[in-house]
Fold:
Amino acid sequence: MNDFEFYNPVRILFGKEQLEKLDELIPRNKKIMLLYGGGSIKRNGVYDGVKKYLAGRDIIEFSGIEPNPTYEKSMEAVELAKKEKVDFLLAAGGGSVIDATKFIAAAVPYKGGDPWDILEKEAEVEEALPLADILTLPATGTEMNMNSVVSRKSTNDKLAFKAPAVFPQFSVLLPEAAGSLPQRQVANGVVDAFVHVIEQYLTYPVNAPLQDRIAESILLTLIEEGPKVYADPADYDAMANLMWSATMALNGVIKAGVPEDWSVHGIGHELTVFHGIDHARTLAIVLPGMWHVLKEEKKEKLLQYGEKVWNITEGSDDERAEKAIEKTVEFFESLGIKTRFSDYNIPAETIDRVVKNFEKREWFETGDRKLVTLDVVRKVLEDRL
Amino acid sequence: MNDFEFYNPVRILFGKEQLEKLDELIPRNKKIMLLYGGGSIKRNGVYDGVKKYLAGRDIIEFSGIEPNPTYEKSMEAVELAKKEKVDFLLAAGGGSVIDATKFIAAAVPYKGGDPWDILEKEAEVEEALPLADILTLPATGTEMNMNSVVSRKSTNDKLAFKAPAVFPQFSVLLPEAAGSLPQRQVANGVVDAFVHVIEQYLTYPVNAPLQDRIAESILLTLIEEGPKVYADPADYDAMANLMWSATMALNGVIKAGVPEDWSVHGIGHELTVFHGIDHARTLAIVLPGMWHVLKEEKKEKLLQYGEKVWNITEGSDDERAEKAIEKTVEFFESLGIKTRFSDYNIPAETIDRVVKNFEKREWFETGDRKLVTLDVVRKVLEDRL
Structure:
């Protein structure tokens, strides 16, 4: 096992009738900004719940945060928060709203000039407004970590930052509210969480059997519960299991003491930037290519994954590895998530554009053991035409 | 899945060369009390490391904290801490030292009279001295939770309390320091962690597959790594895996959203009180009895445990349940931990004394679904003669 540090102070409130705790969770003297997206929280009861349990509080609203939230939209919230002297941010919705809220929390007190530097130049986030969230969509895990991903339309960038100051103070997880999600978003959530686990698991062995088993536990649960939720998002028990799996997938537990490799995400982000494809779908496109190209380098964990998650025990190493990739693709496709460029009408020229963006960011060697060179990025995408 | 709240702000520093971070972790202006036990930290390098990395700090020492730490000894530390105006407690050693330190942290600022009330009358702990620890013995999990167990010699009591104020600010986990432990303590640690998982897992199904799988993951890792560490405590990799398993066994992750049943601990504590038997050994004695007596009530999880952990898939329900109990006993015994009264020369009269203590505490119906009546306690122990 590698040495590690683990710290996660997010308070989780999970299940039914959790919104009524809002009143005691947010100090009375706070000026609150309620942030949300396209208005789904007005249909699933969360908006009314917030109004009810925070009645009499000083609250302003900021809505319209997009999927793949943008710097441009977030900066509108930053201006408003400064003008209105907001000192508590409450995000309600899915990962996009929470990610934007984390960036806004960091940007409001930011003293280094343009807050874009936090994303582009990894400028240090020394302080942030306190924030919390109400989660209605299981997927990204942002509700229990200090990470955020924000896009900038004007420059075709999709970048991440992390800072302890943007850990949510608390996150209210509501499987019931997620029950009204469209199938498409449920499928995205399952695949997003699945690939989050993979990026912290499918690298190379370091003798960390507990971390491996927990990662496999999340994968198995997603494979078991995902199709149930996809068939019926209102199945409370299955949605609850999916939601907790997605949170556990990215709260730091499974990465403690093991290597990580976020290169599937790195490449996937570019496909979203250029073609607006849902984040999870870009991961489903890129992952099989990454495994094909780095099959040899990732063989030990790929075979372990095949055996422990898909029960693949027969055939040569190569046959078993191929079978593991195949089963993964089948699983994604069973949730209506396609895995090839042609399925999304992505032209082959996109490959050049992605490689150029990697070059621009000087990402010459990403991934675990720096395996993902520009050449690997190209081959991974060529595999997915 | 049941509704739940999860909160655990303990910072974990795990692995080699972690002690050098002490200087930045403890504020410079603190008057520190270093608490330890019989002096093992002077042999495993931890004492010297603390002195080196906290050189120049205002530190006083308090040593001699016993296994099954006592109220009596802890109160000596409370007096000293008050007199010396200590404002930071640093425990170094195993679970006993950390548990005592938690009680001392709560007792120093306690304004309600005798701090024993915290244990006996569940008096509220509103504040506590900040505390942290350096763990050199994998077992209890106290390094990453807010629980503490303290005994009182004069009254034959062994009682627990919990309070958010006694979460350690940080815990430094040192597998290397644990490498010099005697086999006996390693075996105790494996069994202690094992039964911690069982108490949060082997109740009744609530459709929480991820929690179940993670619990099973810890059990499987203990079964795999435990014998390696028992054979050679200096096997760093195996010790690291044991240490992280023991921490994960009781940091709140596996109990989130599921029922618990701490009645094996409740009964085991009495055997320690009356006969001074190591905590883990009392659990190994009591657990098989609990399963024999409540085999029917716990059948679903007992069969699941047998299948997932011991791969028991053949035979009638009763045969498989019996086999699961048998395999567990064999595992304990393979670590040199005996499981019957006769192995420890415990007289049959102890059964009456335990039941009387349960009566005195008005513990008439403990365990999940209140299954553990005084009659069940008696039968459980009769099973272990």
